[in-house]
Every structure is written in C-alpha cells, then in structure tokens.
Design brief:
292 residues, alpha/beta, five-stranded mixed β-sheet
Length: 292
C-alpha cells in the first residue's frame, strides 16, 4: 500500500488496522473514489457559485430558495454546509450609530401598543397596501463627501415605495422622498411613522403630510425598536451596497443604491415574512386576490 516504485510497501490489512479502517471500505473506495453524494454536492456547489456570482449579497437561506427555483432541492442546512466548504458567504458589516439629539415629537406615536405586561412595543404590520409607511434617513461616506438616503417602506409588503438621495440631510430630502411615494401610490389616510429627527419635525414636512391626507407618527427617544422594521432595511443596504466597496463619487454610490432597491430588494430579494416572495410579487398576488 504505497506509491508504485516505493522502497517500502505496507500490506493493506496492516495499514487499515493502524488507521482504524476496514479493508472492505478501502477496496470499495479504490474502485469508486467519488461517491454519488460527492457528485451531487459538487453539482449543488456549482449552481450556488453561479447564483452567488450573479448576486453576491445572498446568504445561504436565500441561495436555498434560488436553488429550488431552478429545480435543485437542498435543505438550508445542506446549503450552509456546502457554502462553508466552497467559501461562499454574504457580506456582513456593523451598523453605524446615528449621531444627533432627537427633539420633541410633533406627532403622537400611532403604532405603539401596550402588551399584557405593560410594556410598550410596536406593530409594524398592515392588512393592506398604503396603510402604514415607515421612513428614516441613512448616510454613507464617499470620496467626495457624504451621501444621504431617505427611504419610505410600506409595512404591508416591505416594498420601498419612495426615496430620495442627495448630498445634504435637510428637510427637503424627506420632502422629496414623500412626494415620490405620494405620486406613485396615491395614499389616503396613510400613517407615516418616523423617528424624532429634525427633518421629520420640520414645518414643510408636517404641511406636506397634512395636505396629502397622511397621518404623522413618531417613536420615543432612544428607542431603536420603535422603527426596527426600517432599520432592518438599512442594515441590508449597508451590507449589500454601502460597505461592498470604497465609493469614490456620490453619483457612483447613488446609482448603486437605486439599482439595488429597484432591481434586487423590491423585485428579487425573497422575504420569509412574505412567504418567500419578493415585495413586488407579494403585492401583485395578494392585491389581485383581494380584488377578486
């Protein structure tokens, strides 16, 4: 049991006994060194590499869903194991904390509920589109300075229904995002929930909400969970776009954000809370069913 021409050859029975292996298993492996399971795993890994190359932001759970779409059935645990072997991982990043001291609220907290233990929590759910919107602002550095994004998310489908991107963080950033969402969705009586940032408390934003029949809502001070559903979107954005590379210009980053929101998050990223549908699919299926 050695390479051809080796000076010392060890009998198979002796080598297997020392290694704690069976001679039957050795000869079986010698006859067929690659098992069917190995072939199947290699096929899955090849498919995973192709999907991940197309969208590097996908983790093993989403990769498992994408595999099912092309007819390859593999459990999440198996996909996780194969991703670990192949070195396929989604990018991860730490969320940067926001600076600034929040001011007094100009709206009541319309999403707060008190549970049986007397604790205040929030229900970020909705029974139909455009009943509850969430909005917030995030920022990221580029070689030209910071770029700011104000996004508006519908609690019904988790779809980003409006957003604006600019080099400043003034109230006009929020106004532009709201006008974008209002023009696309034509809301009536929608609750628009935000934190207590000065941009959301400005007179122009308050007037814009009132003139379009929207109801403002604001969370408490120093309570990140009061807008957790919006923070989860920004966390995904941070991992998949903002920290994906070093952005030299604002325009380069602005374009990347728009492409990710429009082509990936809204249309391709499946969500467990939506039954593994994308936000666009969820709205199309369930609004059609309600209309019928």
């Amino acid at each position: 049991m050695a390479a051809t021409g080796a000076r010392i050859r060890v009998p198979v029975a002796v080598a297997c006994r020392v290694l704690g292996l069976s001679t039957q298993g050795y000869y079986k492996w010698l006859k067929d060194p690659i098992s069917q399971r190995d072939w199947d795993d290699a096929h899955v890994i090849d498919a995973v590499l192709g999907i991940h190359e197309d969208d590097p932001s996908l983790g093993y759970r989403f990769l498992s869903d994408e595999l099912a779409d092309i007819g390859i059935l593999a459990s999440e645990n198996r996909v996780w194991r194969l991703c670990s072997i192949a070195g396929v991982f989604a990018s991860h990043a730490r969320k940067r904390a926001k600076a600034g001291k929040p001011g007094p609220p100009v709206h009541d907290d319309l999403l707060a509920v008190v549970d049986g233990q007397g604790r205040v929590r929030h229900e970020f759910t909705s029974s139909a589109p455009d009943l509850v919107w969430l909005t917030d602002i995030t920022e990221h550095r580029t070689g030209e300075g910071k770029l700011y994004l104000c996004a508006i998310k519908d609690c019904y489908s988790n779809k980003i229904v409006g957003y604006s991107i600019d080099s400043h963080m003034k109230s006009s950033l929020v106004e532009a995002a709201l006008r974008n969402a209002i023009a696309l969705r034509c809301p009536d009586g929608t609750i628009c929930h935000s934190d207590r940032g000065s941009q959301f408390r400005s007179k122009k934003v308050i007037r814009l909400l009132k003139n379009n029949g929207l109801k403002g809502s604001m969370g408490r001070v120093a309570a990140a969970g009061d807008n957790a559903a919006m923070e989860s979107f920004f966390s995904l954005l941070q991992k998949n776009v903002l920290d994906a590379k070093r952005w030299e210009t604002r325009e380069e980053l602005r374009l990347a954000i728009v492409v990710w929101i429009e082509t990936k998050y809204n249309r391709r990223r499946r969500q467990r809370a939506l039954g593994k549908l994308t936000p666009v699919q969820f709205e199309m299926i369930y609004t059609t069913a309600d209309a019928a």
